[in-house]
Design a protein that fits this description.
This protein has ten helices and no strands. The protein is mainly α. This is Sulfite exporter TauE/SafE family protein.
């Protein structure tokens, strides 16, 4: 499995999967923008520093989680009596990518089990985020992003499994960075654009197309690659 394909898959999963994120993260971005002073909210130029710092915080949390998962995966694969742990890792990440596509397309909601598990941890972290509200400064938005990056989300968890199979802390961090960058366009525009965009992105046909794209990437992982 080439690293480029894996990183590109993570980026595409972030890009098309952020359609699904709108329901969850959209509320948070709404909360962030609604707590800002009127003069900031009414000007997209003034809003940009807040949206950028919030998203830098969120993606930083993804990278930290990816580094941890990559490191744990590398340690774990050394302990397993497998001849080629990379092949096993490839199969696991491919299958997870397909599950992720089915989840985004609303065909199969198995990843909600992961979200339920994560919600226990989230109950411990969530009160920290409230300390940064109402947001009056971009640094507070950064802090809010760092905390809200741990919000339980099947999409994030699926890419974290990807990171777990990446075989190193560095690769795990890179994967989550690629995924985070993929989610940026949707979350940056959402902080500023009207409600119609959210409604469009949540249409079943849009989710199905996005899910189908991610499934294709999952299947591509199983194709033989030439190094």
């Amino acid at each position: 499995m080439t690293t480029e394909l894996t990183l590109f898959s993570a980026f595409i999963a972030g890009l098309v999967g952020s359609v699904h994120c709108i329901g969850m993260c959209g509320g948070i971005v709404g909360l962030l923008t609604m707590s800002l002073p009127d003069n900031v909210r009414q000007s997209y130029l003034r809003l940009i520093p807040y949206l950028l710092t919030y998203n830098i915080g969120r993606i930083s949390s993804y990278i930290i989680a990816g580094v941890l998962m990559g490191f744990l995966g590398a340690q774990f694969s050394q302990m397993l009596p497998l001849e080629n742990p990379r092949v096993v890792a490839m199969w696991v990440s491919g299958l997870f990518m397909i599950a992720l596509g089915l989840y985004i397309g609303a065909w199969w909601q198995a990843l909600t089990v992961l979200e339920k598990g994560g919600s226990y941890l989230w109950r411990k972290i969530e009160p920290l985020g409230r300390r940064f509200l109402p947001v009056k400064h971009p640094l507070q938005a950064l802090g809010l992003g760092l905390v809200w990056g741990w919000l339980p989300c099947g999409l994030v968890y699926a890419i974290l499994v990807f990171a777990l199979t990446s075989n190193s802390a560095w690769n795990g961090g890179l994967l989550m960075l690629a995924f985070g960058l993929g989610t940026l366009p949707m979350l940056l525009t959402m902080g500023a654009t009207a409600q119609w965009f959210t409604q469009f992105a949540q249409k079943l046909i849009v989710r199905r197309i996005a899910g189908f794209v991610v499934i294709l990437f999952g299947l591509m992982i199983f194709l033989p690659h030439h190094h």
